Amino acid sequence: MSDIEDDTEISFSVKFLDRVEVLRSDGMQILTEATAAVQNPDREISEKAKKKKTKVHLFLSRSAIDILEHKTKFMLYTCPLSSVSFCAVHQTQPKLFGFISRHPALDTYHCYIFQSRKFAHLLVSVIGDAFRASQQNSGLRGSRDLVVEALRHKVRPFSDL
C-alpha cells in the first residue's frame, strides 16, 4: 500500500447483523424491511447465529466498501462504491445503519445491515463522502448520486482524512 492509498482509506469496527436480498436499490422503507427481516425471531438461522452479531471491520476506500471478519481479517464481502445506491441510519433504531448495493454479477440488490452504538450517523456520512470522492476520482462527477439519509453529524470530507 502506498502513502497515497493510506490517506484515502479508513476502517471502523462495527457489528454486522446480516446481508439481505432486497427488491429495490434505494429507500428508507427497504432498509426498514431488511432490518425487520434480520430481527425476525422466526427467521431460519441457527441459535448461535441469532445470539451473536459478528464483529467486523468496515473498511472504506475511494473505490469500495470491504467487510472483513474482525479476528481473522477474512474478507466477507466487498462492494464497489459504484454499486452502492443508498445509505442511511434506521429511523427508529439509531444504532442501526445500512447500505444497499447491486450484486456485481447478478441483477439483484443486497442490503447490508450494521450496528454501532456511537458512530452510525458518522459512518453514513463517511460512506457518502467516500462515494463523492470516488466520483471525483473517476471523472463521473454528477452522473449518479448516492442517496444518503439521516445525516446529523458534520465530518471532514473523506479526502481530508
TrEMBL record:
Residues 10-131 form the PID domain. SMART domains: PTB. InterPro entries: Adapter_Engulfment-Domain, PH-like_dom_sf, PTB/PI_dom. This is PTB domain-containing engulfment adapter protein 1-like. It comes from Astyanax mexicanus (Blind cave fish). The lineage of its organism: Eukaryota, Metazoa, Chordata, Craniata, Vertebrata.
